[in-house]
Amino acid sequence: MKNLKTAQNIWQVIFASSAGTLIEWYDFYIFGSLSAIISEKFFPPANRELAYIATLATFAVGFIVRPFGAIVFGRLGDLAGRKYTFLLTLLIMGGSTFAIGLVPGYASIGIAAPIIVLLLRLLQGLALGGEYGGAATYVAEHAPAEKRGYYTSFIQTTATLGLFVSLAVILITRNLMRPEEFNSWGWRIPFWLSVLLVIMSYYIRIRLKESPLFAQLKAEGKTSRNPIRESFGKKENLRLVLLALFGAAMGQGVVWYTGQFYALSFLQKTMQLEFVQSNVIIAIALVLGTPFFIFFGRLSDKIGRKKIMMGGMLLGALAYYPIYHAMDSTVNLQQKQELAGQYRIESNMTRNSDGVSTERTARVHTYTDGTRVRDITTVTNGKTENSKEILVSTPTLAWLVFLVFIQVIFVTMAYGPIAAFLVELFPTRIRYTSMSLPYHIGNGVFGGLLPTISTLLVTQTGNHLAGLIYPIGIALICFFIGTFFIKERSGINN
């Protein structure tokens, strides 16, 4: 009976922790999933490329402040407890996300729009900086040492599932209304839905008890009085923090963002794939790949965390260039033959809620392999904008799903075991603070800056694949440090 009760308790803990963390990731990634539209709504329209880079920079700000959130909430979690700390981060994240959906656009309030969005993005980053460490620590401190990789791997699925849910909600919303309505105001709906999700998650989490290891420390009066000083002021622990960052977290961070966010950005901005198709490709690849987080988490209990994580980083570094070259080749129109007899022109006129009319003309080119290219001219108030939209055939769509899926496998190898790895690296009394900082610097700074840095590299060089220099370089450095300087610690209790 006792073992059955323990099993029931651990699954309750996993469900409550994972549900809340998934919602926080959903909130955090809506912004990135809608970055192309947000760049048009909140930034000056004079230069579309500059507006998109500014949007990616605002997106990256949320990552950059995550380490500060890790320090603030990590300290709180090591002093007051894991449970109430990640209840607080949940509420901050949900409120910030909902507020972004209410901010008027640049056309209404000018420069105030991007400033307000930036401030709300800062709050999102701070909240997420405190969330992950609390949830991972909370689950790990309930799990038996021999199954820690398996149980914490469910927390590891939440980041990818949060991205998937954000894409699914966006696609459903988009398909329930006309494209013009979605671009006008419908894109705000995914932000508004955050309130309902947060309320449900808060109700689930409030019923949890404190983690047994932390509760025991607190009862014995052995909790840290100054977790920040103890984490970073002691030479031996600081060494572990630095190894966790440069030998695991930063490589895992770039692999995670390359295989998911950079892949989406590459499909939409570089390959100019149609909005729905590009999101469908990522969503299918994420669904197919998500079970491998649990597979590699469980495998790490048997063979160790380090081998799997380093393998994911090395494979990613070696495979990214050929994978993205293959992706880019699918939309190389110079290698395709056009069906001249199927050329057509589509034109329509719409009027938004302010009474402003927009004329949209699309010149549609069809190719023998099923590819369709829409050269679009949009005229609003006498202002003309040109864009391109590519739709690929079903076989090509399946091929692109496979190429992204391979990248997701690298993600699951690097990310699946890392929660257990970080938990085992640090003692319970300062675990929340110690593990949160390297994780969020690795993911928030090295990983979060990837879309911005890679886009700038592509813009400066004119080479579609130049953006891969950054993730390949970081992954190789991390692989070397992790392989030669980190010892395997799977199953350790401290």
TrEMBL record:
<feature type="transmembrane region" description="Helical">
    <location>
        <begin position="465"/>
        <end position="486"/>
    </location>
</feature>
<dbReference type="InterPro" id="IPR036259">
    <property type="entry name" value="MFS_trans_sf"/>
</dbReference>
<feature type="transmembrane region" description="Helical">
    <location>
        <begin position="150"/>
        <end position="173"/>
    </location>
</feature>
<feature type="transmembrane region" description="Helical">
    <location>
        <begin position="85"/>
        <end position="103"/>
    </location>
</feature>
<keyword id="KW-0762">Sugar transport</keyword>
<feature type="transmembrane region" description="Helical">
    <location>
        <begin position="109"/>
        <end position="129"/>
    </location>
</feature>
<feature type="transmembrane region" description="Helical">
    <location>
        <begin position="397"/>
        <end position="425"/>
    </location>
</feature>
<feature type="transmembrane region" description="Helical">
    <location>
        <begin position="308"/>
        <end position="327"/>
    </location>
</feature>
<keyword id="KW-0813">Transport</keyword>
<feature type="transmembrane region" description="Helical">
    <location>
        <begin position="185"/>
        <end position="204"/>
    </location>
</feature>
<feature type="domain" description="Major facilitator superfamily (MFS) profile">
    <location>
        <begin position="13"/>
        <end position="490"/>
    </location>
</feature>
<dbReference type="InterPro" id="IPR005829">
    <property type="entry name" value="Sugar_transporter_CS"/>
</dbReference>
<feature type="transmembrane region" description="Helical">
    <location>
        <begin position="437"/>
        <end position="459"/>
    </location>
</feature>
<dbReference type="GO" id="GO:0005886">
    <property type="term" value="C:plasma membrane"/>
</dbReference>
<dbReference type="Pfam" id="PF00083">
    <property type="entry name" value="Sugar_tr"/>
</dbReference>
<keyword id="KW-1133">Transmembrane helix</keyword>
<dbReference type="InterPro" id="IPR005828">
    <property type="entry name" value="MFS_sugar_transport-like"/>
</dbReference>
<keyword id="KW-0812">Transmembrane</keyword>
<protein>
    <submittedName>
        <fullName>Sugar transport protein</fullName>
    </submittedName>
</protein>
<feature type="transmembrane region" description="Helical">
    <location>
        <begin position="50"/>
        <end position="73"/>
    </location>
</feature>
<feature type="transmembrane region" description="Helical">
    <location>
        <begin position="278"/>
        <end position="296"/>
    </location>
</feature>
<keyword id="KW-0472">Membrane</keyword>
<dbReference type="GO" id="GO:0022857">
    <property type="term" value="F:transmembrane transporter activity"/>
</dbReference>
<dbReference type="InterPro" id="IPR020846">
    <property type="entry name" value="MFS_dom"/>
</dbReference>
<feature type="transmembrane region" description="Helical">
    <location>
        <begin position="12"/>
        <end position="38"/>
    </location>
</feature>
<feature type="transmembrane region" description="Helical">
    <location>
        <begin position="238"/>
        <end position="258"/>
    </location>
</feature>
<keyword id="KW-1003">Cell membrane</keyword>
